[in-house]
Predict the 3D structure of the following.
Amino acid sequence: MPADHVDPGASFRVSGYDLDEDAPVRIDLVRGDVRVELASTSTAADGTLDVGLRMPASFPTGYAELHVIATGVTWSTTLLVGDRAEGPGGTGVINGDTDWLLWALAIAGAVVLGLIVLRTVRGGVRAAP
């Protein structure tokens, strides 16, 4: 799959090769308790799979798992539903919440840097005898 993220309502493709010939395949998208069947199809006579899909417009944004289920085997990959925060036009928001971990790390780094500077200043100035 060439895309690593898909906007709700947008179309995308799933392809594969070296699969069983004329085998039934189901493609599901899963995020938490939400499971949506995107396609029920079969591989081609040469063992390839190439199917166009549409991301449901109501599917919740965030990371989801795309499952390709064939006879006796399941393949899966992670897919971001919605915009990337770091991409062009990104929002810096993940699933409606600010990225609190990034803020916490930045604040902790600033505090550590402040303590290092304070210790250096205090250690470098000594009273004359």
Observations:
- Residues 90-98 have pLDDT under 50 and may be disordered.
- The CA atoms of residues 24 and 51 lie 13 Å apart.
- The beta strands are 5-6, 11-16, 24-31, 34-42, 49-54, 62-70, 73-81, 93-94, 97-98.
- The two ends are 73 Å apart (CA to CA).
